[in-house]
Amino acid sequence: MPDTAMTDAPLLAAAPASAAVPALSVQDLTVQLFRRDAPIAAVNGVSFRLARGETLTILGESGSGKSVTLKTMMGLLPARARIGGTVRLSGRSLLDLPAAELARLRGRRISMVFQEPMSALDPVYTIGAQIAEAIVRHEGIGRAQAMARAQALLERVRIPSAARRLRNYPHEMSGGMRQRAMIALALACSPDVLLADEPTTALDVTVQIQILLLLRQLQEEMGMAMVFVTHDMGVAAEISDRVAVMYAGRFVETGSARQVIRTPGHPYTAGLLASTVHGGQRGGVLEAIPGAPPDLAALPAGCAFAPRCRFAEPDCTTTAPPTVARDGGGMVRCPRAAVPA
Ligand SMILES: Nc1ncnc2c1ncn2[C@@H]1O[C@H](COP(=O)(O)OP(=O)(O)OP(=O)(O)O)[C@@H](O)[C@H]1O
Ligand SMILES: [Mg+2]
User: Fold this and answer.
1) 64 lines ligand 1 (CB under 6 A)
2) 306-311: long-range contacts at Cβ-Cβ below 8 A with a sequence spacing of 24 or more?
3) For a substitution probing ligand 1, which of 64, 235, 250, 275 has the most ligand atoms within 8 Å of its CB?
4) C-alpha 113 – ligand 2 centre gap (Å)
5) Could you tell me the CATH superfamily of domain 1-109+191-295+320-341?
6) Is the pTM of the predicted complex or chain greater than 0.85?
7) Per-residue confidence at 5, pLDDT binned at 50, 70, 90?
8) How far is Cα 198 from Cα 88, in angstroms, rounded to an integer?
9) Is pLDDT larger for residue 110 or for residue 272?
10) DSSP character for 102?
11) Distance from the Cα of residue 307 to its chain's centroid
């Protein structure tokens, strides 16, 4: 059994005393953001842990809190955000670290492939300079050596003519090339944990598969733990050991990729599967689930999915749904879930 569990129970209680410290553990994470002056509940109690070499994929509709969850771990939320819970990187608590200390870990121990590569790459430096700078800063090696490493990284993410591409500025690259350069930058210092926020959406299908296989391979070589975000069930099945389905800032179902995809227990997961069966669904309306996600400024006391759920009963909107355990450590947050093994 991998040392991975996604549960609402306290993590320390769930883990035997002798168990290895997880590469990443998140316990009861909550994030409140502000839209103008109104608070919105973007993340509402997310817990999981991940061992070295494992991948968790977070799936969910637009606005469900996937990116906010990842950015919280990187310390990249607006200053006004209110954060609760704990995030531990190899046992070390991140949320209470001074900003300078977190900046030292960022890139070296935990790094992120951002959903929008243009916002993460610096427009005034070449790709080569940016990757080499990260390597020099974190590893203290010489510039020429760092540049050679940068070129090797571009080759690994299948950027043709890597030596020439090192001298390109981000705006001189296509969206797909930029996304690959962003992946190379994130991998530059062999982080222990990689947060990959829809890293392949700008790529065509063949390149997408190449990049997924590459991430898998690098992950095995480096023993990296990875949190992967996607809208695409097919991609989730390809890349992950475990899947978490997110709705309105909560995990509503977790389990092995195989379990969740073959035998979804939550009505939302079933709808998501029905809507994405022919490839990724970005943003728009989910055909199999009528209605829209709830207003995060006014979440109901009970299940946030109840207004869209065809199995909902009156108590669903008033009472928080219990979690029903699945075999192997997963769960479904729905009292009426048919939970297969
Ligand atoms: N900086 C911010 N300030 C205020 N609200 C924000 C901020 N960033 C995100 N939000 C809000 O938080 C909620 C969750 O956003 P998030 O970006 O995590 O969604 P997502 O699941 O990543 O969606 P997508 O699939 O479209 O990328 C949304 O309602 C969004 O509008
Ligand atoms: Mg996002």
Assistant:
1) yes
2) 308/268, 309/267, 309/268, 310/267, 311/267, 311/336
3) 64
4) 11
5) P-loop containing nucleotide triphosphate hydrolases (3.40.50.300)
6) yes
7) very low
8) 23
9) 110
10) H
11) 27
Tokens of 122: 């610096």
Mutate to test the pocket of ligand 1, among 33, 61, 296 (most ligand atoms within 8 A of CB): 33
Which pLDDT band holds residue 10 (cuts at 50, 70, 90)?
very low
* Cα distances (angstroms) measured from residue 26 to each of 90, 105, 244, 298: 11, 17, 13, 25
Structure tokens at 282: 């970005």
Could you give the CA distance from residue 6 to residue 132 in angstroms, rounded to a whole number? 37
Domain ranges of the chain: 1-109+191-295+320-341, 117-190
Q: Which ligand 1 atom minimizes the distance to the CA of 68?
A: 18
Q: What is the pLDDT of residue 15?
A: 42
- What is the C-alpha to C-alpha distance for residues 273 and 279, in angstroms, rounded to an integer? 10
Residue type, 62: S
Summarised one tens digit per residue, pLDDT across range 266-300 is 999 998 888 765 444 444 456 678 888 999 999 98
3-class SS at 304? coil
Tokens read off for 43: 């993340």
33: helix, strand or coil:
strand
- 97 CB-near residues (< 8 Å, 6+ apart): 75, 105
